[in-house]
């Protein structure tokens, strides 16, 4: 018969072979406790659990002062009194407090004998062990493990074991559902309430809380059961209590010194997007009942199995560099817990916190999407569907600015209408107007770049026909109305490129080149689909009122768009007049390796210098690897790297990849480690505000595109790998069309295995050589990365 098994002194409901901690390279350990709010919140961010539907920060159950525990559900935004819509902090089900003799056991109030939280990234489980010494001298050990289920995203559980070490007596154990949650707001000191209570109910075996967002009325339902599962013989008193928007279930138990007491909390979270409003309570209770009936063990087994499958696809193995390996796994873990299940965008901080208010930026298509395209194309499709669904908002953005077509928002949330805040407290604590929403228009083509990349890798024609063409044509129409006819050429004036230090600039090279490419793509597709699927094109053209003449005009704009490319030096000017600005090279670095601004330069006057915030021209060279010569790559890397302040988390990964291409390999490795450790090392001192999703996606790209050297060249797989000295090998798998491709790179050879339903010979280029690789057979090919 199934029972409770002992692990050390603790009793666990589920045996060790299922929930036992994985080997060290899969773990993120956080030992000790510091009282500072920032430190508490950094740990919460790093230990976040998730399943793509929701994320749960790794907060301590007793919620010490300074905590910022949070649960965020993908795509739930609300404005209310905020300046713009923001991602809503949802009710929590993971609270737990222990009281003895009128005093709580809390890490910030008790002295700590031992404390550790361990995130098991292989299984998506967060473990905690704390031994507290209470002011009264009482010592107690608390062990918890919690997870949000990967196989059934609405379920979560927390298993708790409490062991009084040196006392017997009455212990009060509280856990509930907490709807008293506020967002932290955009400006310091703000607290914004986005939810109001709809229903709070209790039954014999459950608690239920239903809240709704104040503006759109989206309902969030949480149901939970909380019970003592070990030692049923003990004296026990159970009292459910409701305080306003908070439910607390109190269990009072007479504990005996040295004995362990196990509790189990099972929780269900749904929203009115999946369940009709009227049925929410019934539905939640029903789900909770079947969870209880089936038992936590069966659900955890499935959860762990789901994780195993994910890692089988997404794991990247580096032999010889333990630190890099662990950091890569941490970044992939972040991508796995944010994999969209429905058409939703991914925010710049994933669902890990309220930084950037959960808004979706270009980070999504340019930095994050590639991981999903190559590993989980269905998730990539969902991300692109979000952009399709927000086309009406994008059309409104264009209209509001006096343009035609569709203009994707620089910051996007529910509808796709621009939600960039108007003011920000910027570097050096100045409050200033934010121009990115009006001027950082490259986002429009970034989205289309992501879409084209998706199509090229997956070959998903249905997506292109049903959604993609409309996105491409409407955004092309926007650009045709946005460009300025300057007589002998077309220009794009008053923009912000990726480098946000320079606003209101003309002809940003990155933007102009991308728009050239975008318009050209639109023309090419219009003509091609016109030949291959004339009915489809006719229907679309009627719906969009699109004519052949309009499309011809796009080609003219594409050909005539200005791009300053100096053939002799190879240098590309970032925007008109950039080379005339005051020139400085960065030569001083602080203790953490961050560049120090030259004397006289501040973030208020930096616009008048050539110093840039993040990769801009280099970004362009990276996106179009086959369009620029080696000479141009080296010239631009050498020039711009010395002038880049890396004040953005989007910068290091680009420098890592471009460094490899420019053969500045030591620099490249150092940039790579910065991006891979960006949050683990709190590089920009703001990990408390959430994970930097672009750095996470950029880490994956730096490994696969950079060290692995993977690209797709005219519909053919290409590999140009290079491994850092200490890496013995690098292994990864990607999906390409209907095939799965396993690659292992060594210093002088690659091993490739292309899985396919058919026996065929597939061309593959390795550096400048072309090979035919037979499917379903491991093939080893030599190379020399000169
Ligand atoms: O999209 C980025 C931008 O490039 C730099 N500032 C932060 C944004 C969100 O990550």
Automatic annotation (TrEMBL):
Any one Gene Ontology molecular-function term assigned to this protein's record: hydrolase activity
Keyword Transcription regulation: no
Assigned keywords, A-Z: Glycosyltransferase, Hydrolase, Transferase
Domain Glycoside hydrolase family 65 C-terminal: 711-768
Signal peptide: none
Keyword presence, tRNA processing: no
Domain Glycoside hydrolase family 65 central catalytic: residue ranges: 329-701
Domain Glycoside hydrolase family 65 N-terminal, chain residue ranges per copy: 40-273
UniProt xrefs under InterPro entries: 6-hairpin_glycosidase_sf, 6hp_glycosidase-like_sf, Gal_mutarotase_sf_dom, GH65_N, Glyco_hydro_65_C, Glyco_hydro_65_M, Glyco_hydro_65_N, Malt_Pase/Glycosyl_Hdrlase
Membership in a protein family: Belongs to the glycosyl hydrolase 65 family.
Name of this chain's protein: Glycoside hydrolase family 65 protein
């Amino acid at each position: 018969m199934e029972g409770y098994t002992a692990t050390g002194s603790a009793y666990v409901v589920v045996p060790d072979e299922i929930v036992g901690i994985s080997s060290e390279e899969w773990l993120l350990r956080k030992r000790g406790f510091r009282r500072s709010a920032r430190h508490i919140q950094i740990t919460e961010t790093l230990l976040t659990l998730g399943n793509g539907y929701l994320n749960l920060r790794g907060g301590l159950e007793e919620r010490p002062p300074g905590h910022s525990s949070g649960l965020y559900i993908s795509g739930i935004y609300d404005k209310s009194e905020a300046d713009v819509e923001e991602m809503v902090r949802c009710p929590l089900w993971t609270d737990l407090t222990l009281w003895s003799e009128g005093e709580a056991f809390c890490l910030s109030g008790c002295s700590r004998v031992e404390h550790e939280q361990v995130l098991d990234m292989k299984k998506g489980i967060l473990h905690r062990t704390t031994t507290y010494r209470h002011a009264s001298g009482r010592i107690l050990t608390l062990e918890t493990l919690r997870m949000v289920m990967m196989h059934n995203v609405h379920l979560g559980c927390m298993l708790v074991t409490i062991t009084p070490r040196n006392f017997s007596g009455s212990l009060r154990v509280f856990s509930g559902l907490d709807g008293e949650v506020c967002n932290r707001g955009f400006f310091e000191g703000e607290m914004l309430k986005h939810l109001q209570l709809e229903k709070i109910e209790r039954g014999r075996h459950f608690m239920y809380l239903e809240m709704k967002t104040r503006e759109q009325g989206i309902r969030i339902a949480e149901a939970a059961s909380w019970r003592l599962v070990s030692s049923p013989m003990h004296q026990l008193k159970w009292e459910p209590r409701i305080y306003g928007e908070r439910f607390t279930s109190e269990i009072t138990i007479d504990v005996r010194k040295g004995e362990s007491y196990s509790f189990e909390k099972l929780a269900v979270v749904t929203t009115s997007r999946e369940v009709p409003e009227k049925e929410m309570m019934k539905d939640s209770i029903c789900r909770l009942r079947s969870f209880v009936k089936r038992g936590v063990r069966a659900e955890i087994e499935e959860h762990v199995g789901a994780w195993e499958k994910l890692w089988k696809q997404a794991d990247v193995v580096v032999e010889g560099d333990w630190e890099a390996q662990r950091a890569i796994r941490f970044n992939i873990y972040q991508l796995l817990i944010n994999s969209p299940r429905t058409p939703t965008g991914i925010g710049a901080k994933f669902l890990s916190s309220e930084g950037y208010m959960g808004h979706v930026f270009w980070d999504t298509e340019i930095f994050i999407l590639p991981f999903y395209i190559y590993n989980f194309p269905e998730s990539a499709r969902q991300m692109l569907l979000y952009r399709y669904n927000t086309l009406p908002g994008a059309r409104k953005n264009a209209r509001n600015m006096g343009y035609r077509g569709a203009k994707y928002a620089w910051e996007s949330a529910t509808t796709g209408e621009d939600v960039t805040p108007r003011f920000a407290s910027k570097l050096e604590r100045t409050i200033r107007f934010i121009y990115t929403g009006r001027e950082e228009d490259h986002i429009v083509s970034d989205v289309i770049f992501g879409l084209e990349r998706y199509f090229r890798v997956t070959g998903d024609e249905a997506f292109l026909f049903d959604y993609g063409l409309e996105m491409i044509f409407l955004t092309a129409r926007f650009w045709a109305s946005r460009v300025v006819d300057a007589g002998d050429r077309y220009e794009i004036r008053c923009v912000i490129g990726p480098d946000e230090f320079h606003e209101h600039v003309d002809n940003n090279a990155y933007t102009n080149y991308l728009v050239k490419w975008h318009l050209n793509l639109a023309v090419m597709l219009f003509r091609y689909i016109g030949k291959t699927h004339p009915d489809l094109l006719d229907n679309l053209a009627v719906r969009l009122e699109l004519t052949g003449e309009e499309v011809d005009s796009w080609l003219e704009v594409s050909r005539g768009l200005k791009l300053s490319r100096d053939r002799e030096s190879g240098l590309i000017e970032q925007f008109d007049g950039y080379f005339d600005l005051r020139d400085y090279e960065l030569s001083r670095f602080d203790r953490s390796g961050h560049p120090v601004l030259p004397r006289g330069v501040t973030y208020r006057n930096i616009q008048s210098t050539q110093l840039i915030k993040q990769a801009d021209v280099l970004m362009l060279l990276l996106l179009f690897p086959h369009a620029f010569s080696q000479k141009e790559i080296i010239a631009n890397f050498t020039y711009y790297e010395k002038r880049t302040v890396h004040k953005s988390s989007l910068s290091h990964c680009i420098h890592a990849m471009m460094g490899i291409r420019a053969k500045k390999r030591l620099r490249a490795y150092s940039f790579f480690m910065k991006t891979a450790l960006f949050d683990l090392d709190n590089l920009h001192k703001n990990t408390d505000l959430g994970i930097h999703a672009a750095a996470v996606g950029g880490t994956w790209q730096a490994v696969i595109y950079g060290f692995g050297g993977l690209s797709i060249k005219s519909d053919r797989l290409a590999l140009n790998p290079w491994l850092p000295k200490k890496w013995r090998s690098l292994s990864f798998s990607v999906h390409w069309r209907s095939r799965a491709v396993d690659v292992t790179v060594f210093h002088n050879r690659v091993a490739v295995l292309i899985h396919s339903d058919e026996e065929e010979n597939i061309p593959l280029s390795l550096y400048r050589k072309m090979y035919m690789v037979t499917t379903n057979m491991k093939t080893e090919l030599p190379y020399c990365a000169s």
